[in-house]
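Record type: ASSEMBLY
Status: queued
Input:
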Amino acid sequence: MSEITAEQVKHLAYLARIDLSPLEITNLTHDLGQIVDSIAKVSEVATADTPATSHPMPLTNVFREDVVVPSLTVEQALSGAPDRAGDKFRVPAILDED
Amino acid sequence: MTYLTKLSAAALSDLLISREVSAVEATRAHLEHITAVDTDLHAFLHVAGDAALATAAQIDARRAAGEELNPLAGVPIAIKDVLATQDMPTTAGSKILEGWIPPYDATVVARLRAAGLVPLGKTNMDEFAMGSSTEHSAYGITRNPWDRDRIPGGSGGGSAAAVASFQAPLALGSDTGGSIRQPAAVTGSVGVKPTYGGVSRYGAIALASSLDQVGPVSRTVYDAALLHDVIGGHDPLDSTSLTERWPSMAAAAAAGLQDDALRGVRVGVIKELSGDGFQAGVTQRFNETLALLVAAGAEITEVSAPNFEYAVAAYYLILPAEASSNLARFDSVRFGIRVNPESGSLTSEHVMSATREAGFGAEVKRRIILGTYALSAGYYDAYYGSAQKVRTLIQRDFAAAFSQVDVLVSPSAPTTAFKFGEKLADPMAMYINDVTTIPANLAGVPGMSIPIGLAPEDGLPVGLQIMAPAKADARLYTVGAAIEQLLEASWGHTMLSQAPALTPTEMFASEEGAV
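Status: finished
Output:
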């Protein structure tokens, strides 16, 4: 049995930048424990001499010519932003004051 | 004009080309049918009626002027809401993108516009394509046209239901672990996941980038092939896009309709995708289809893919890991909603965390947390690293199988459509449902689902999955069209002609003056 704790879920939620309610943490702790138990079987067949595959079709170094091509205008790029200041995205403070 | 909605895209195309029917008439017929039945089914999240009629009118004018157009010009199409459309909201079924109108079109959308197809609207889906039932959409469920109390499959339940209920002859879907093929199976329609890299993903909101593929949804194999020819091929905007020159899928499907198309075709039955856990009626229809194939001259061999047993486990490590990274872009800065925390300081970090708490549904949170866990220090090798090795083993199983046979077959899904709520409380029960479709995504090979009958015990559609080696998509269309023709000849009708009429709401709607 895997031992997923509520503390661990809280930490993962912090890493993933998602606030979770106490109820969500309880539920996720339970779900995650169950899921991890079911998927841990991958280690049964993953022997040291088996190479890893990250991508179904191996492609490397996909380059294009270094030339200017049409792209979004500033207005288009900002069209979906929740907040803007002139031609820029406006964001809340980056650093905490306390 | 209701009969126009019953036609295949190919048959409608013939009428449009001969100008017996105008694109405006065809579009209007579909819009009226949507009005009549979709309040109940909820296949669409957005219907762009005026824009569709305007597009159709332009096609009619160009055709009248003698312009040479794509055969599908003027044929209506529905678009899964995971694909960016610059004139329609694009939400991927999530609250976090509510109302977002992208500043660009996905390449597949741009290609279907260039070919003159008429976009009708955007279809419902599990949030960010995470699910097998469309119950995880933030905008409500979509009902299965065969039984309103059952799921239409997922994540592309909206596209499958739209096509199966004659609201559109064609739709676009996306398939990360079965999201095109499983909805096709449970709605009696056709769905194709092309070879990884065969169709551009530029403008498809990413779930798991090493698995996602965009593909056609339709009622006939030939229609899917026509649409595949429009959307497929190299796209420099997608760096995983293959640079091959592809054969015509429509020509491949047409070849399947010739006599003796199945003679000598080597068909492999995957031992591990049968037996325990498969509904009796699914197995029965699958075996009957194999008998038809033998009678048509195909050679059936049983093949073993011993590592498929580990596919679901590997998938539910790889997918959440990639999703947790892809969905980091929803940071409340560039697009989507922004929600301030109820307490604490208003820093970017706090605002991002509050936004994601409010904007993501339970399944999305579950998978992001799981993916974050799988990628975290101390667990990476045991989980994500092992899953990538399983992926190699599954590719080897496919390579061994395809050294003996031309195509592989299995049931598309272990069961027919299940009831709403049946698997919601148990995530693993929902995940295991994708056991048949996941291996193709892990290996990048193409797969197709076609209807093969109704399960005797519940009268619901059963699908056959056909898989081919990577880049041999054309083979799927030849074999798929041949099997479809054999089955329809044995039934004396098409599969979807047997679907229950959606008359109650139609009558209700006509009382309201909607039709």
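Annotation: Strands of chain A lie at 84-85, 88-89.
Annotation: Chain A touches chain B through 59 residues (CB under 8 Å).
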